[in-house]
């Protein structure tokens, strides 16, 4: 299917409104997928990629880097395609999910606008809610690798915000209590926790993990908080789910590695993918 060839504003140009680029990206997605609008967005982190096939029927799949404002991921194990998925709810209603591949992390050095671009594009595409997932380190010995955890709040330790200028947004209920309740109806055993984002790409030191715990964190990672803030600013409800892929530094007796994160995600894939699919169908 043909897509628009209209020139797109440069996301890196400080005079460009990033929401103009998001609207251009949403237009591209609508034309490339043949789906004029989407209802819910999914950002799939480490270990969550198999969920898209269980959510519903994939209507269309497009390379993420071809969408205005996006680029190829620089990290092994992160998705490279964006999919439009037809979701049939238990009551027979049909919705469309936008599964965003190729999440941009702050540590890639592309700037905060690129980190927030995915959720802003989802909002421009019509999404009223977004499910943000990630793989992370756990601070509780009882949360073994493979444990999904609902995010109840976060601590942003990146020293960055996706908001520019005098833009004030209330984050009191950033992680929607309504959506968390729906998730608990799907799986009553889901625990909740506070997620702390460090800038990365290095893993946290044991002292930094201890500090995060003293601040109230239960989980540590390198994504999600900036996207969540941008999503709330764009008017979406936010559901955050972390997958504990390893015990954090100082909690685990073993050295940390990216390979360990990917392996834990693969092992937990079937369970968490089924969980996410059931949650999305219930939203």
UniProtKB/TrEMBL annotation:
PROSITE patterns, per database record: PNP_MTAP_2 (PS01240)
EC number: 2.4.2.1
Domain (Nucleoside phosphorylase) ranges: 40-281
Record-linked SUPFAM superfamilies: Purine and uridine phosphorylases
CDD domains in UniProt: PNP-EcPNPII_like (cd09009)
Tagged with keyword Transferase: yes
Keyword Transferase recorded: yes
PANTHER family given in the database record: METHYLTHIOADENOSINE/PURINE NUCLEOSIDE PHOSPHORYLASE (PTHR11904), PURINE NUCLEOSIDE PHOSPHORYLASE-RELATED (PTHR11904:SF9)
Protein name, as recorded: Purine nucleoside phosphorylase
Lineage of producing organism: Bacteria, Bacillati, Actinomycetota, Actinomycetes, Micrococcales
């Amino acid at each position: 299917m043909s897509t628009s060839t209209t020139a797109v504003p440069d996301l890196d140009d400080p005079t460009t409104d990033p929401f103009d680029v998001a609207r251009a990206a949403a237009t591209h997605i609508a034309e490339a997928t043949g789906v004029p609008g989407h209802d819910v967005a999914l950002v799939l982190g480490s270990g969550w990629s198999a969920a898209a096939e269980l959510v519903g029927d994939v209507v269309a799949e497009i390379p993420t880097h071809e969408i205005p404002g996006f680029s190829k991921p620089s990290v092994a194990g992160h998705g490279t395609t964006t999919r439009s998925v037809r979701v049939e709810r238990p009551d027979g209603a049909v919705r469309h999910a936008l599964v965003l591949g190729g999440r941009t992390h702050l540590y890639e050095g592309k700037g905060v606008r690129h980190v927030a671009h995915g959720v802003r594009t989802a909002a421009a595409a019509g999404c009223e809610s977004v499910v943000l997932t990630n793989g992370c380190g756990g601070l509780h010995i009882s949360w073994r690798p493979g444990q999904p955890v609902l995010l109840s709040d976060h601590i942003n330790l990146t020293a960055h915000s996706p908001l520019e200028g005098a833009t004030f947004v209330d984050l009191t209920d950033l992680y929607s209590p309504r959506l968390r309740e729906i998730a608990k109806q799907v799986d009553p055993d889901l625990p909740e926790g506070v997620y702390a984002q460090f800038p990365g790409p290095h893993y946290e030191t044991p002292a930094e993990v201890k500090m995060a715990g003293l601040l109230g964190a239960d989980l540590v990672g390198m994504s999600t908080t900036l996207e969540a803030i941008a999503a709330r600013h764009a008017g979406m409800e936010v559901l955050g789910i972390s997958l504990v892929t390893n015990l954090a530094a100082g909690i685990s007796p073993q050295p940390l590695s990216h390979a360990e994160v990917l392996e834990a995600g693969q092992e937990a894939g079937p369970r968490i993918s089924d969980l996410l699919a059931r949650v999305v169908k219930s939203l």
